[in-house]
Amino acid sequence: MATAQLTPTSYIVLGLVETAGDATPYELARRLAGGIGNLWPVPRSQVYAESERLAGSGHLELTQERAGRRRRTYSLTSRGSAALDLWRRVRARALPDLRDPGLLQLYFGAEAKGLASGRLAQHRARLSDYEELLERGEAEGRPGPMLALRAAVLHERASIEFWSELAAEGEPS
Amino acid sequence: MATAQLTPTSYIVLGLVETAGDATPYELARRLAGGIGNLWPVPRSQVYAESERLAGSGHLELTQERAGRRRRTYSLTSRGSAALDLWRRVRARALPDLRDPGLLQLYFGAEAKGLASGRLAQHRARLSDYEELLERGEAEGRPGPMLALRAAVLHERASIEFWSELAAEGEPS
DNA sequence: TTCGCCATGTAATAGGTTACATGATTGC
DNA sequence: GCAATCATGTAACCTATTACATGGCGAA
User: Is A8 in contact with B104 (Cβ distance < 8 A)?
Assistant: First the structure.
């Protein structure tokens, strides 16, 4: 029941359990992949590890099958629920980091035109994924996911704007 | 001289050594903080660790003072230089992840208005930092840093657009 | 009934974060 | 010559990444 610091990964797992109800880590990971995992990837093995930690700290409760696959099912405890609520209300201090491998290359002198056109294609592809999700209304019933998706779209557009300017710069007209 | 996989952190260190010429990890960290560290933070202790690894793999060469502080100075080997050049030319596969703590809260149901106005202020502050850097022409003599900064500005604007729409939504008119 | 894929879990290793520790320098 | 601050390094701990391993189940 040691109260260690909760990380973003912790809140992702807690949030997933909250919306899923009781679930196995596998199930959580599946939901992750279709949703917030696009914006904040967490590898499956981490979902296992984090669930276990959260059970250790009393934020989740574990029920394990006795027979067969001995599946682990986690559910939110009142402690976990309270932690999640509090987190939702506290103003996050950290801003996102860009951490774009392509920008890194650009920063350190990669040839701009070729880099830009490659990145442009990648971002366009991702943008259309996101736009399709938006249309299909992958809202999961809650407003949060849709809003986050809108944000993701805006960032893709920003990337596209950037790289396409760069690709066009000094272009023969 | 084991050839382990190089990570983004590796290339950051290699790139810094390249532009700095021979340097101690401390000096590298200082340059980081004023430059690419804004977009891709690497803690100082990692700069030490990574330099050591890179020396172990033959990408950097270590010279250590015999007397006094026994400072460690690293310089780029031809192997390191080749690795950097290759990296600049190979098309990066991974797109950036958003990983915005605020978006995470939004995704998992935080109250939108309050969150948005807080985030808005934070992004505006960062935007003006970036704009100031742009004006001061913190170019470090190379074009890469300025271009990366432009990208950062566009992303800040995207964030600001997102959060300000959200803050305004349903606002009494 | 066997092949292949989905479901489920775990282990090993590397990488990152935080905090601590102490040696030089410089302004007063 | 002392206090404050910069320079420099390290250790402990936690997290994440990658790869492996195997059980069930459905289709052919």
Answer: yes
